[in-house]
């Protein structure tokens, strides 16, 4: 059974998006951001109907199987350097364009009612890149933490940074701590930035923590299960630690050591679009694709 949300998305693809060109000529205030707000309203109205269907037909209703919005979207930001090379620009220009895209897409996610957005901003393996590129990225992180804090506070967005902090410059660490402290009480909008993050390291540090607790008698070995490990991972900062949808831009089809444990049942989407070009329309396409997925979680549907 096709949900109202899917019908709305199809309507946008066929009718509304072409109308953008007409609206520009007529000076009509017609933007995809307004469309997103309309979809959110339609989805919220549809929730009540789907909940009634679940009561009538069972707990595994249409909303769970198909048509629901993801609560947690994770994104691997790939393609900044290729974007700059195609335009004859420097590597730093590509990273700056990518940073601008980060905030634009985060705003769109939260406007849709998505609770958690996780961004793979800098992997542990990225330290092997040229020194000037790494230093430029650290400076860019500092610049954005400074400039975006007022926005985070105004829109009440909680910020969490996950990863190994031992190599991060002290100046950047100070800004990270300041931002996390200033936004820690906010609920409903959570932006997680993975900086010097590795999925393997995340699992390793969780295992070490549990081993230490078992050694000290804080926990019994037989009590360790998946839920206990979940609480030891760095994503324990989120109410929704496991992403529903993971997007990797640029066309590469791998997750590159990101959220290895958390992505067991995540829907993986690989658009052939470089990250700085991944705008509102591309994000809508990703959501449309997600809407069409039938999530089984290992069960037969």
Automatic annotation (TrEMBL):
Listed GO MF terms: transferase activity, transferring alkyl or aryl (other than methyl) groups
Could you say which EC number(s) this protein's record lists? 2.5.1.-
Q: Looking at its record, which EC class is this enzyme? A: transferase
Q: What Gene Ontology cellular-component terms does the record carry? A: chloroplast stroma
Membrane-crossing segments per the record = none
CDD domains linked to this entry: Cis_IPPS (cd00475)
Q: Please give the cofactor(s) recorded in the UniProt entry for this protein.
A: Mg(2+)
Keyword field: Transferase
Record pathway:
Protein modification; protein glycosylation
Q: Do you know which InterPro entries this protein is assigned to?
A: UPP_synth-like, UPP_synth-like_CS, UPP_synth-like_sf
The UniProt record lists the keyword Transferase: yes
One GO BP on record is:
plastid membrane organization
| Tagged with keyword Transferase | yes
The record's annotation in NCBIfam families points to: uppS (TIGR00055)
Q: Which HAMAP family match?
A: ISPT
The family annotation for this protein states: Belongs to the UPP synthase family.
**What role does it play?**
Catalyzes cis-prenyl chain elongation to produce the polyprenyl backbone of dolichol, a glycosyl carrier-lipid required for the biosynthesis of several classes of glycoprotein.
Q: What protein am I looking at?
A: Alkyl transferase
Q: Which organism is it from?
A: Brassica napus
Phylogenetic lineage: Eukaryota, Viridiplantae, Streptophyta, Embryophyta, Tracheophyta
Name the gene behind this protein.
BnaC09g53740D
């Amino acid at each position: 059974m096709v949900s109202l949300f899917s019908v709305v998305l199809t309507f946008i693809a066929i009718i509304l998006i072409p109308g953008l060109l007409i609206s520009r000529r007529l000076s009509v205030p017609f933007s995809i951001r307004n469309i997103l707000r309309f979809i959110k309203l339609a989805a919220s109205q549809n929730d009540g109907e789907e909940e009634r269907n679940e009561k009538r037909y069972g707990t595994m209703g249409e909303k769970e199987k198909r048509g629901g919005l993801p609560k947690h979207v994770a994104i691997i930001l790939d393609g900044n350097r290729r974007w700059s090379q195609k335009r004859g620009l420097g590597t730093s220009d590509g990273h700056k364009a990518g940073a601008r895209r980060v905030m634009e897409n985060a705003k769109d996610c939260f406007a849709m009612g998505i609770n958690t957005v996780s961004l793979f901003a800098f992997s542990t393996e990225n330290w092997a890149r040229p020194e000037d590129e790494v230093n430029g990225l650290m400076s860019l992180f500092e610049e954005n933490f400074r400039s975006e804090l007022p926005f985070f506070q105004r829109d009440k967005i909680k910020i969490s940074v996950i990863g190994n902090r031992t190599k991060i410059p002290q100046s950047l660490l100070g800004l990270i701590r300041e931002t996390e402290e200033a936004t820690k009480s906010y609920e409903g909008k959570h932006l997680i930035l993975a900086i010097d993050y590795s999925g393997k390291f995340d699992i390793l540090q969780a295992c070490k923590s549990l081993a230490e607790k078992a050694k000290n008698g804080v926990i019994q070995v037989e009590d360790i299960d998946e839920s206990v490990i979940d609480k030891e991972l760095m994503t324990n900062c989120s109410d929704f630690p496991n992403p529903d949808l993971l997007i990797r831009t640029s066309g590469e089809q791998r997750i590159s050591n990101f959220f290895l444990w958390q992505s067991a049942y995540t829907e993986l989407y690989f658009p052939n679009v470089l990250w700085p070009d991944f705008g509102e329309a591309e994000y809508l396409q990703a959501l449309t694709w997600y809407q069409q997925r039938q999530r089984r979680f290992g069960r037969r549907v």
